[in-house]
Amino acid sequence: MIYDVDLETLPREDLEALQLSRLKSLVGRVHANVGFYRQKFDEMGVKPSDIRSLSDLKLLPFTEKQDLRNHYPFGLFAVPKENVVRIHASSGTTGKSTVVGYTHRDVRNWARLMARCFVASGASALDIIHNAYGYGLFTGGLGAHYGAEELGAIIVPVSGGGTKRQVMLLKDFGPTVICSTPSYALVLHEAALEAGVRIKDLPLRIGIFGAEPWTEEMRRDIEEKMGITAIDIYGLSEIMGPGVGIECCVAQKGLHIMEDHFLVEIIDPDTLEVLPPGEVGELVITTLTKEAQPLIRYRTRDITKLDITPCRCGRTFARVHRMMGRSDDMLIIRGVNVFPSQIESILLETEGVAPHYLLVVKREGNLDTLEVQVEVDEKLFSDEIKNLQRTELKIVKNIKDYLGVTAQVKLVEPRSIQRSEGKAKRILDLRKQA
Ligand code: DLL
């Protein structure tokens, strides 16, 4: 099923015509109303009238997270404050948070896009949706909430935390869809088992997971343990929140970008050149319809690649590969670039190892070292020492063979790695404290 069938299946030519007219209007609006962009355009010698085709996008300046911070809190609004009806903010691990404003129409568009996402995941108005994304300044909770209401489904606004209670609600209300981070889904699964509840036996059938990187191996693990279809959803507060892109349940291969609202490019993060489809680089997004705080060529720092081949589901929107990592999370260990997701894939392929891990990065002299702490399951934990050692060596070898990096591996007790109610913390970077 497709929610906005006319738009989501627009022939590419018509889609591009729509994008171009929206891009022209956007450029005019930001030039007229946002001092930051007017100044940038002037510095680069670009005028709104220079944008005549979609390929002229490359004439426009990039926007970075730091630009949002520099204009904290409301300096990038393109409308008077009285037209803004909602504010969200991302916490950010360093520095001030980034703030995003929405007009009434922005909030409505977002709800429609999230409704599209629910339908793409296989959900409908008949579903009960358990929403464990945090409500508040984080966009996950309210984003999914309004989308579910727009769709006409029943939304259970649980928010994050209170894990035991969540398990009770999963059992009592019998939701058919759950929204959470993938790591929290595993926490719920674990807590359910402790409470004697098998999620597999409940009516739950779809999980809409995002807000943090996860891997294909993690998907299989969750699908198998919980007996559901696990769908990857992408978004970021600066651009809107959840719903910028989602996988369809038909193919589960790449996330369709809502291209009538967002223009995407993949760039080489070093040279800033635009890369062709299929090449891995940084995702850059231009918001075509946002009124309160439109952004031009926003550098997400998320690493992925573009797939423009037609999808079996019938949607004509291009897809991006599941996020491979963030450029700022990339570890350079003795000259080798490693993304946490690559380590996750190796861990989850190893028998006896649980999907809970922490990467500890230290600097010794001028060299970075990587310690992989990973939990083992109860069975392996109570096994003979030599089996534990064998597993440890196997992980060390696989990391070396596949990634070319020497890591220390430390197997730790079940449940000893801290659980998170929202985004999991996978990296402990001790270099920054040194
Ligand atoms: O995490 C919005 C969201 C909420 C998306 C719920 C999906 C579901 P921020 O807190 O601003 O917004 O964080 C955005 O999270 O740049 C990515 O690095 C990461 N991220 C989001 N979704 C995915 C995903 C929300 N599916 C940042 N896979 C983004 C990998 C993701 N990383």
From TrEMBL:
Family matches, as SUPFAM superfamilies: Acetyl-CoA synthetase-like
All residue ranges annotated as the AMP-dependent ligase C-terminal domain in the record: 335-431
Source taxon at top rank: Bacteria
GO terms of biological process kind: phenylacetate catabolic process
GO MF terms held by the record: nucleotide binding; phenylacetate-CoA ligase activity
Nucleotide-binding keyword on record: yes
Catalytic activity: 2-phenylacetate + ATP + CoA = phenylacetyl-CoA + AMP + diphosphate
Description of how the protein assembles with itself and partners: Monomer.
Protein name: Phenylacetate-coenzyme A ligase
Organism (species): Fundidesulfovibrio magnetotacticus
Origin organism lineage: Bacteria, Pseudomonadati, Thermodesulfobacteriota, Desulfovibrionia, Desulfovibrionales
